[in-house]
């Protein structure tokens, strides 16, 4: 994950998000991607779920870069270990509403604290990893796929967030 995080940060800096981006703008991007994940879960659309998990993680890395820059590599390893323990219980429930409610609560905490709350980031990342496990998706593959999709994307940073060229 460290290499992916570095690539995402370089991508963001190459697009001036480190100087023109804002935590608020990134929060909007995170919220947009979360709505896509919720749609994917509600429709049982694995491709949408995979894409959204990766996209959300990308927005978290960039939001973290703009904020306190908490070391995400260590958090990922820690969260992955404890999340694996709880996934079987979640799988047994197979309750989409529980997953969505938990995700919504955690993202609210992360956005409210402007990516500065390490425990909020841990729980949120735990939810993303948990969702990937529940749907038999490899979390790192979700992130790699999202990065590969944006790697050569062109656009502009406007009002604190990157807008892809086709949306300008």
What would you note in describing this structure?
With 168 residues, this protein is mainly alpha-helical. The chain has one domain. The protein is built from eight helices and two strands; from the N terminus they run H-H-H-H-H-H-H-H-E-E. It has a two-stranded antiparallel ribbon. The protein is globular. The mean pLDDT is 82.
The rounded distance between the terminal residues' Cα atoms is: 31 Å
Could you name the ranges where pLDDT drops below 50 across 5 or more consecutive residues? none
Major sheet description: 2 strands, antiparallel
Mean pLDDT: 82
**Strand residues, percent:** under 5%
- Reading the helices and strands in chain order gives HHHHHHHHEE
Q: Helical element count?
A: 8
Radius of gyration: 15 Å
Identify the overall geometry. Answer: globular
